[in-house]
Amino acid sequence: MPLRDRIKFDTTTAAAEAEAARQAYATATTTFAAEQVIARNLGGRVEGDTAVFGFWTPELLDERVPQGDIFLEVLSPTTPVDLTVSHQDLVFERAWIPVVREGAHCFTAVTGLRAGTRDTIGDFYALSWRDAHGNWQRILDPLAMSLPFGAMAPAELYDVQAMQANRKDADYYALLKKDAPHKFDPSINILQIHVPTATAGGTLASLTRHYQRIDDRVTKDLPLEPADQLFLGYDAVQLLPLEPTTVYETGPDFWQEADATNEQLSVSALRPDTTNWGYDVVIAGMSTVNPVLLETGRPDELIDLAAVLHNFPSKAKKLIFDVVFGHSDNQGLRALNNHFFAGPNMYGQNLDYQNPSVRAILLEMQRRKVNFGADGVRVDGAQDFKWWDNAHQTLRHDDDYLQSMADVVQDVAGTQYRPWFIFEDGRPWPDEDWELSSTYRAVVENQRDDDVFQWGPLTFAHNTPFLYTFWLSKFWRIREIIENGANWISGTSNHDTLRRGTQVSPKLNVNTRLGGTRMEILDKAYDNPAVHVLTYVAMPGVPMDFLNAMARSSWGFIRNQDDQYGVKVVAEEAISLKWQVDEYSYLVPANFRRLKELGFETREELVRFMDFLPALVEVTDYDLDEIARLLSVAEPPLAGPDFTVASLKVIARAWMDDMHEYCNISNALSSLDPAQIQFCHATREFRRERPWLANNYGPKDQFDYIHPINGRTVFASLRHGPDGEQVFSVAHLEGKPTEELEPLSLPVPGIEGKNWRLVLRTPSIGDEYVGGPIVLKDSMALIYVRSP
């Protein structure tokens, strides 16, 4: 049936939506409260046979556009849409539905529209308006629940109720249901995962299959391989951001329109294929899932992953979302109206949190996203949530907004709950003295809930455990963690610390005892068995590990959308070549194939080019023409293509795409060290069996380094459990070997006496050691327990 004959404008429902908005303004105690009520009805939703739409459109008031020139543009595909192919030419029937305006909002309702589901593609939509010259402008839906072609394209109407009704973890939520909203407790430990590099498939569906396979093997009590153990022993999984990110600056667009009439539209549609580490968001589309991460193009994949984790056989695993509302990339200006923004910052654009509509919409985006089934929320860059105080002419942190984030009540499978909240907040970052002056407790101390967490001082960005004196120089921070770290996320490996580590000059005082090559040194620094003992046994708080670090796979700043500054970004990443890629890895045929095709046939040739590039970026103040000229006259000549501005951009894109493939942990699984994997898994299980280790130290607990230093840093810890159990650990973090010592004879008050039992030793010690004198070397550690 033709689209025009199938659909009908539902005047009554549209008018009722507008009236509800009017009543909200008339009765709410504050404008913000009214906007919160209205925000629940924004976007496109399915109610029985009717599709209802709401848009916040202050730009139409700015442009003085009359209601008669505003329409809901409906696009219905005339042939099947296949979201699993790279390119398709589509033809859409097009229809225009009137709207009812109420202030800065437009509402409409339509019967007969097709809503998308797991198995069907729905109709697409956007709000469109006609200017005085007859030209059409389009307003995209920032709260869309399905964006098969990205945030810069029309949205798909999606049946969210049907998606939620079919989730397979309803029993998990039923057990939590009670009169008041359930409040999730902190997790015991966390595995941080970047979906595109976590499996060979690089999608949510492939990650779900991987967890399902592990689930099956655990259920059937089958032997577990190191690749299985890598994912086990964790109480929670935290995914790097899942929201739609930036698109290619200079194209191609994923939605390219060709022939168009009032009744029909031809589109060249591309499957989104950007590579991104997740933090370059445009804010629009935050309610749904980045289509790049969807194997089927269906947002149901995220619920599928939540269900597999929640139904895990030994114990349910929690799912934590990482949300980015502290900034928008400049591309957000293409997707949202100007009222969303409060001016530029180092990332792109600040958001106008003081605008009641923006504030309400952002919180509604968060609510809808977490309703996919997250048990916890990690807030990126909480120190960036700021507003300008005109009265005092200064920027202030918006702690009220952060509290509002933690107050949002979710509703999944009929159960209301509030997630566990984690904030990354290093204020006064980016002040020059932030590493010294940040307490990492600003949010914890200001929030009402006593279980709010922040990233701790060893978990923030500038973390270099592969440099000599790192551990001793950070001892004052470690003491803070020991005394006051119960509400901190701990651990040294995460997406940011590993990236920063690869940007450090290898000419600094590198701890060569960690390995024989730079790759070995970096890998062991962020997957150090002694550090795991420190994190999981000695320190309070909640430990977190980054999957790429635990797999000893590579990682870096991955983003292939840049055109203007892509070469500069690669220049900043150039040092990582020396840390993460050796000659053998480069020569593997599947690795760095794009760069090889451009003429960098060997690692040595690429290193030489990468040595030139950062220096020229700096001395020319990033003048690409001059950089290309100087590269072209280098003697002896550099490998690679003829250097032009265009070819430099091609090289930058090739580096990003090649590194994205190189960082996939599937490349590292065959070389996992079974002994290291088993030890780390055993350490995680040790912590999970003793949740009291998350508490701050008590009056009888002890922590210090062995005196005198004598060229090494050795930490010793004694902790007491509520049932009287004692846990003693000693860990050699850096420096020369110790003299032969008896660990249980160290001058640590409280370890005197007998009945200690050695339960874990780092792999390099060997199973033959069961106690007695030992020479501890770098990265060695021991864990003892004594029962009451």
TrEMBL record:
The keyword Transferase does not apply. Transmembrane segments: none annotated. GO terms for molecular function: hydrolase activity, acting on glycosyl bonds. InterPro entries: GH, GHL5. Keywords: Glycosidase, Hydrolase. It comes from the Bacteria. This is Glycosidase. The lineage of its organism: Bacteria, Pseudomonadati, Pseudomonadota, Alphaproteobacteria, Rhodobacterales.
